[in-house]
Amino acid sequence: MDPEHAPLIQMKNIEKHFGRVIALAGVSVDIFPGECHCLLGDNGAGKSTFIKTMSGVHKPTKGEIRFEGKEMHFADPRDAISAGIATVHQHLAMIPLMSVSRNFFMGNEPVKKVGPMKFFDHDYANKVTMDEMRKMGINLRGPDQAVGTLSGGERQTVAIARAVHFGAKVLILDEPTSALGVRQTANVLATIDKVRKQGVAVVFITHNVRHAMAVGDRFTVLNRGQTLGTSQRGQITPDELQDMMAGGQELVALEGSLGGTV
Amino acid sequence: MTSATQPTANSDERVKEISSFRNALIRPELGGIVGTVAVFTFFLLFAFDSGMFNSQGIMNWSQISAQFMIIAVGACLLMIAGEFDLSVGSMIGFAGMLIAIFSVTLGWPVWLAIIVTFAIAVSIGALNGFIVVRTGLPSFIVTLAFLFILRGFAIYLPQTIERKTIIGGVSDVAEGDWLAAVFGGKIFTGFFQWMGDNGIIAVFERGTRKGQPVVEGLPMLIVWAIGLVIVGHIILTKTKFGNWIFAAGGDSEAARNSGVPVNKVKILMFMFTAFCATVLAVCQVMEFGSAGADRGLLKEFEAIIAVVIGGALLTGGYGSVIGAALGALIFGVVQQGLFFAGVESSLFRVFLGLILLGAVILNTYIRRIITGER
Amino acid sequence: MTSITKKLALAAAVVAAPFAVATSAVAEGEKYVLVSHAPDSDSWWNTIKNGIALAGDQMGVEVEYRNPPTGDLADMARIIEQAAASGPNGIITTLSDYDVLSGPIRAAVDSGVDVIIMNSGTPDQAREVGALMYVGQPEYDAGYAAGLRAKGDGVGSFLCVNHYISSPSSTERCTGFADGLGVELGDQMIDSGQDPAEIKNRVLAYLNANPDTDAVLTLGPTSADPTLLALDENGMAGDIYFGTFDLGEEIVKGIKAGVINWGIDQQPFLQAYLPVVVLTNYHRYGVLPGNNINSGPGFVTADGLEKVEEFAGEYR
């Protein structure tokens, strides 16, 4: 992380109310290029609402979003995507029945003109897909291999590679590791590391402290719609993070009874 | 995996390498190809000298297959986009009736009647699609409603206007109409005459057409079928829009997240299905010269069966237009061929059921290999 | 090889081994195909099937019954083309829609197949398509005759229960009846559909809304049987004037019980049986009757029901 860099996104005092429910009560986070910013929180802490606000799904009730220094008002997710904020959802990223190359270019299909007709440029799409997958360390049988034949970790990797290829400056990963096994999780974390080194800002949502500690540069904990502050790597221990997520005392007691396994 | 050049290769070593030959063989159309070969082998063995493979016989099952093909192309693309249209059969009856009413009862020029009918039918398709994407109701239910609505109008309109349920006389008013010939005409008549003159195909033995070939040309019905299959195949596999069709049916939420205009795709596919149904309706009306309220009964299921025999997945996101066309061919050849083979015609449904079951099992197996479903 | 085992062999071959040894599908003697317009659900055509089967047995010829499963006449046109392509000696077909069927029939005639029109159609249309003859009951005339009869019995209004409204011949029957009565058909014809429960309820609904209706006319067992139940239910049985086209087991019972005043018997058996006999003799000995054959109408009333009762639904 390079603290001299200007923040890519500044979320200032974001509040989001759903009727009488206050989902976010003034959250401020800065995201810098090339950092992996882990957003931690228990279920219901407001993580989803927060990233949906960042990616244009929700409009904040109060507060300011600055993107590359300018104030932004995203009308819908497409606005955010075209600005360079890409979200990779846990389940809703890939279509298993379709080939990797078709998935990779879904919604951004390359076309070549043959006379007045525009055709899907399969040759280009296949070449790019194979290249990008190789960079991420995935060897495909071929670009027409269906995504369904890939493991869960590989699918996340394809989704991440796709977002980066299409110019994402900020990559929001919504619980990418929550449904994965140990080895696949390691693969995804390795992918995050690669992407970060390319200068992309990664917002990594998780409730698993160990996964966060593995790749995170900075950590922001959300609890009941508020931040409990952002910490640098090395300034905080996993146990402290765990405590902050759970809101302190109760978990300490609970953890004791479970022998420190949580 | 075989590649050792990638130190970070993290592919699952439990995925077996598949030989390139097998890989080339395993395609969505494979079930359709196998079925077509099997069906033709069977009938060549059992019904070769029964008239099934003389010019009239070939024309007969080709036309039946072409009918299925026309509606199967629409149904196929729609099914891949994740939706059904059960109103196809009723649309055939309804659209045919509209043409007859416009041209015969109201006396419009036939080309205008055809164009207006297409416009109305495609609008109804759009309405179907609009209701489906807006309400989020299953298309099964929405189009089932239109199955009744359109069939009802196909009976009510002529009953009210002409006091009968079949309106004839379209042939007379369509005489010389340029657009009517595009649907009801025949091409290559010179070639067929030549074949008749040279004894390649049979000629009429008596009557006013003595000496003319028994098959006088290639009906436009078949030309439309082949044209729609080619266009449908190109759209699906070679265009950006085709990718959207797959995406919309595979997982509409994921597709939306990736910026695919899912609703637009679905509505357009409903319109295309209605268009295909209307093509068949116009071809029928122009060929037979009349529109009947019961035209197209149960055709929606026949279209869906052809599509499923052709390897498409009922839940969407997977399929092939070529496969659907082969499914239609199998369906048509079996339906007509059993008669030639001397099988009791009431057993047709038994055969159809067996073929459907066999095809679905084979297709499921193929699809699992391709897509890694478990 | 008997036909059952042949079929089984074929069925097994389709399922398991398309390469099995071929059995010959060609039998001895002439081959005739009867094509009807009736959907599978119409049980009345059973008599026709039995009629051609009997004639086939007696004459020693091969006969086949074909119909469009849904009653779609465009499908029927294809069946006629197909029958012609298979090169039979003759085709016996209904002509329920001249526009649709005349082309394929004429093509069959021109390619050397002899055609007899049965059941629907008119003698004139049969001549126009080049058929040898017409065997059947002209529908409008039959309806008209029935209308005259009902008028004589004092009927002034009626309900026509039409279960196959998409076929023009059904409307002709109702129109003929109305003309025989000397009234406008108007809204007196209902599209009942083919489902017994629906037919019954529609009849009940109509009679409930129009309690002054003098008579009910049904167009065959499909509509007559549920109508009998409907009249039973609303208590009009025996009171309302009830005439029907065609016969069937329940209709015969109804006539016997006095609920149905008469049934118009077009004697379908003859429509199926006679063409096979005529064609066979024509092909064997070159003899052909000089005129069309009217198989009906014959009015069946409570008198002389015995034979009808015995063979109702089979040959009557």
Provide keyphrases for this structure:
heterotrimer, B: 374 residues, mainly alpha, ABC transporter involved in vitamin B12 uptake, BtuC, two-stranded antiparallel ribbon, two-stranded antiparallel sheet, 16 helices, 4 strands, 2% strand, globular, C: 316 residues, alpha/beta, Rossmann fold, 2 domains, six-stranded mixed beta sheet, 12 strands, elongated
Description of the molecule:
The complex is a heterotrimer of chains A (262), B (374) and C (316). Chain A starts with 8 loop residues before the first strand and ends in a 5-residue tail after the last helix. A 6-stranded mixed β-sheet of chain A has the order 6-9-10-3-11-12, sandwiched between helices. Chain A has a 4-stranded antiparallel β-sheet with strand order 2-1-4-5, with helices on one face. In chain A, a hairpin with a 2-residue loop joins β7 and β8. The longest helix of chain A is centred in the last third of the chain and has 16 residues. By secondary structure, chain A is of the alpha/beta class. Chain B has a single domain, classed as Orthogonal Bundle (ABC transporter involved in vitamin B12 uptake, BtuC). Chain B is globular and about 65 Å long. Chain C has 316 residues and is α/β, with parallel strands linked by helices. In chain C, α8 packs across α9. Chains in contact: A-B, B-C. Chains B and C meet through α2, α3, α13, α15 and α16 of B and α1, β2, α3, α4 and α7 of C.
Secondary structure elements and their pairing?
The complex is a heterotrimer of chains A (262), B (374) and C (316).
Chain A: E1 9-18, E2 21-31, E3 36-41, H1 47-54, E4 62-67, E5 70-71, H2 77-83, E6 85-88, H3 100-104, E7 111-114, E8 117-120, H4 122-135, H5 152-165, E9 170-174, H6 182-197, E10 201-206, H7 209-215, E11 218-223, E12 226-232, H8 238-246, H9 249-257
Chain B: H1 20-25, H2 30-46, H3 55-80, H4 88-105, H5 110-135, H6 139-162, E1 166-167, H7 170-174, H8 178-184, E2 186-187, H9 189-197, E3 218-219, H10 220-238, H11 240-250, H12 252-257, H13 262-288, E4 291-292, H14 299-309, H15 321-340, H16 348-371
Antiparallel strand pairs in B: 1-4, 2-3
Helix pairs in contact in B: 2-15, 2-16, 3-10, 3-11, 3-13, 3-14, 3-15, 4-5, 4-6, 4-13, 4-14, 5-6, 5-13, 8-13, 10-11, 10-13, 11-13, 14-15
Chain C: H1 3-15, E1 31-35, H2 46-59, E2 62-66, H3 73-85, E3 90-93, H4 98-110, E4 114-119, H5 123-128, E5 133-136, H6 139-152, E6 158-162, H7 168-181, E7 189-191, H8 196-209, E8 215-218, H9 221-234, E9 241-245, H10 249-257, E10 262-265, H11 268-285, E11 293-294, E12 298-300, H12 306-311
Parallel strand pairs in C: 1-2, 1-3, 3-4, 4-5, 5-11, 6-7, 6-8, 8-9, 9-10
Antiparallel strand pairs in C: 10-12
Helix pairs in contact in C: 2-11, 3-4, 6-7, 8-9, 9-10
